[in-house]
UniProtKB/TrEMBL annotation:
<protein>
    <submittedName>
        <fullName>DUF2271 domain-containing protein</fullName>
    </submittedName>
</protein>
<dbReference type="InterPro" id="IPR014469">
    <property type="entry name" value="DUF2271"/>
</dbReference>
<dbReference type="Pfam" id="PF10029">
    <property type="entry name" value="DUF2271"/>
</dbReference>
Amino acid sequence: MVQMTNYVGEGAYIAVSLIDAKGAYEKTLYVMGSDKKWYPDLKEWNKAYKKKPTNISAVTGASVTGGDRSVTVLDLETAKINKGYKLRFETAVEDNKYYLKDIEIPLTTEGLAAKTEGTGYIRYVRLSAN
């Protein structure tokens, strides 16, 4: 679950990416915001996505506005847990600040169980296994 801060402005675009142990983008797990014209605002994700384009329609949903929350399912490979990977939540809002690392969650047993505070538009992210 992603809980947003009470910011003023348009809906936030959020890219959730799998980052490898060396800090490099590996793949897109989810994008909140479906209008492709705003994807360049998610600067690092967009740069990496353009290098490794894939069909993300199955992992794309609505943007999230200030104060709202979004619940979504992330498909995580268990083989990547406790291997140095991270989940990066990159955020952008039209005519507002961009956050490369609004949240980075270590892909560890402990990291997946914790509530993680954001540094920008995201108040916190809480993950749970299903």
